[in-house]
From TrEMBL:
UniProt keywords, alphabetically: Coenzyme A biosynthesis, Ligase
Alphabetical GO biological process terms: coenzyme A biosynthetic process
Alphabetical list of Pfam families matching this protein: DFP (PF04127)
Molecular function per GO: phosphopantothenate--cysteine ligase activity
The family this protein is said to belong to: Belongs to the PPC synthetase family.
Identification of the protein by name: Phosphopantothenate--cysteine ligase 2
Pathway in which the depicted protein is active: Cofactor biosynthesis; coenzyme A biosynthesis; CoA from (R)-pantothenate: step 2/5
Residue ranges of every copy of the DNA/pantothenate metabolism flavoprotein C-terminal domain listed in the record: 161-269
Length: 322
């Protein structure tokens, strides 16, 4: 487990976020709006996509990972369907809510110039997907203000932003949730030991020493947002050790559940590991459009509801109502 000293020295030596004040303002406005809306909405922070590890301060090269952001985007759509407001903390350039069915390669194929006027139109083959994406995005993010998207790239940005979100959500206690699906780098180059300029390519093989990224889940649970409902993820490529590792993480970080998934089958099935036992969650194979997140989020939302009720039993009845 990472010590508080390691965690604070990570933050002290991180390059500061460029737009921190703007992020804090957006967060506070979003949380106030949603928490005061008709007695209050539940708010979940969904983290999504992988963090990069820069190798140079004026970064040309970086270490990355496989995460597409599909899980985070699909889960966000399901949380919204369940009535939540979502803070979508995502890796720039990865999958976005409501865009999963749009072609990203190449996006311009969606459009055409049918005649010689200035009117661009969506090709019939993509019309339904584009229409749904625009309508959902308009309704959820713009009209209802239930989706706040915050992009990150590096491990430094991600962890600083996670801390900002957690601190901003602290006051809404059990009505908040963390759903930590981002693939967070385990190793990084500390800023002060990183070369400023592009690493020379002509000086033979490159040796870089990577330090361990301090695990932030325990401080999120103990200090940043101790009353929030917290779901973390465990990814392995060897299914034989997956459940054991997830069970260890559950105990070590004192989260409410760990979603265990194996790289090659992650779109088919996950296991929700918690103190009440392990539940295998699959997509419905008989429905081609079904995704594992439809069933996973249903379970997580039900668990969150139980958690809120249990928390209310511990709080005098005159306190916040939602
Ligand atoms: C996950 O396990 C996610 O389910 C995936 C989703 C990243 C596999 P995609 O983005 O994939 O849809 O392509 N996320 C957490 C992975 C992780 O880094 N977990 C850490 C660990 O396993 C714990 S914080 O040690």
């Amino acid at each position: 487990m990472s010590s508080e000293g390691e965690i604070s020295s990570f933050f002290e030596s991180s390059p500061p976020l460029k737009n921190m004040e703007e992020i804090v303002e957006k967060l506070n406005q979003f949380i106030n709006w949603n928490f005061s809306w008709q007695g209050g909405r539940r708010i979940v922070c969904v983290t999504s996509g992988g963090t990069t590890v820069p190798l140079e301060q004026r970064c040309v090269r970086y270490i990355d990972n496989f995460s597409s952001g599909n899980r985070g985007a699909a889960s966000t759509e399901n949380f919204i369907k369940a009535g939540y407001a979502v803070i979508f903390l995502y890796r720039r350039g990865t999958c976005q809510p409501y865009c999963r069915y749009l072609p990203d390669d190449p996006f311009l194929e969606c459009f055409e110039f049918p005649d010689k006027t200035n009117n661009i139109q969506v090709r019939a083959s993509h019309l339904e997907a584009v229409k749904m994406a625009v309508m959902d995005q308009q309704r959820v993010a713009v009209s209802e203000r239930r989706l706040l998207k915050l992009p990150f790239s590096t491990i430094y940005e991600y962890l600083q932003m996670l801390r900002l979100v957690a601190t901003a959500l602290k006051d809404i206690g059990p009505y908040s949730m963390f759903y930590l699906a981002a693939a967070v780098s385990d190793f990084y180059v500390p800023w002060e030991s990183m070369t400023e300029h592009k690493i020379e390519s002509g000086s033979g093989p490159l040796e870089i020493r990577l330090a361990q990224v301090p695990k932030m889940i325990s401080i999120l649970r103990s200090n940043w947002a101790p009353k929030a409902f917290c779901i973390s993820f465990k990814l392995e490529t060897d299914s034989k050790i997956l459940i054991e590792k997830a069970t260890k993480a559950l105990r070590k970080y004192k989260v409410h559940a760990v979603v265990a998934n194996e790289l090659s089958t992650r779109k088919e099935e996950v296991v929700v590991v918690s103190s009440s036992g392990n539940v295998v969650v699959r997509r419905d194979c008989d429905k081609p459009e079904s995704i594992v997140e439809d069933n996973l989020i249903r379970i997580i939302v039900a668990r969150h509801s139980t958690y809120i009720i249990e928390s209310q039993l511990l709080i005098p009845s005159t306190s916040t109502t939602v």
